[in-house]
Amino acid sequence: MLLILAAAVTASCGFQLQGAFTPPAGMERTYIATSDRYSLFLREFEAQLRAAGVEFADSAATATAIFTLSFDETAQRVLSVSARNVPTEYEVFYTIAYSLEAGTDNLLPQQTLTLTRDYTYDSTLVLGKASEEELLRDAIVKDLVRIVMKQISTL
């Protein structure tokens, strides 16, 4: 009886398993246009597309789709300082701007995404805080890739 009740509650709330990414028609052979071929976002994004079975074209002329990454920037900024003017909290951010075209169709017009995470800073724990910043940056990249992949999968 409890199993039936749990199934009914789960079904009524609209819960649905996400499933694997399936690229839309026209993305079988994709060219990625960008100025930075080694950015954190691009490496993770290419790995996810490759895992989904997308092939990469060497040029836009031979591609069935063009993913344009026109802006890719990450940095940090000070959020708060102590009474002695020493930073005590930082914010890590990552911003991307992208679009997707397949043939003459503009599947995704220019989109801009920015994700941020903040962390406290202690000058006595410099090495640990540097590692924490890198972990936060990696988590932001994975979240950005997940968002972009979800947008593409809805096309």
- Structure class: alpha/beta
Rg, rounded, reads 20 Å
The strands making up the biggest β-sheet line up spatially as: 2-1-3-4-5
Q: What is the level-2 CATH architecture name?
A: 2-Layer Sandwich
H/E series:
HEHEEEEH
CATH topology: Double Stranded RNA Binding Domain
Domain tally = 1
CATH superfamily: Lipoprotein like domain
The gross shape turns out to be flat
Cα distance spanning the termini: 40 Å
Number of helices: 3
Helical fraction equals 25-40%
Low-confidence stretches: none
Oligomer state of the chains in this structure: single chain
Tally the beta strands: 5
Describe the structure.
The protein has helices at residues 2-12, 40-51, 126-153; strands at 29-34, 55-56, 65-81, 87-102, 105-120. With 155 residues, the protein is an alpha/beta fold. It has one domain: Lipoprotein like domain (Double Stranded RNA Binding Domain, 2-Layer Sandwich), CATH 3.30.160. Strands 2-1-3-4-5 form a 5-stranded mixed sheet, covered by helices on one side. Helix 2 (40-51) links the parallel strand 1 (29-34) and strand 2. The protein is flat and about 60 Å long. The mean pLDDT is 89.
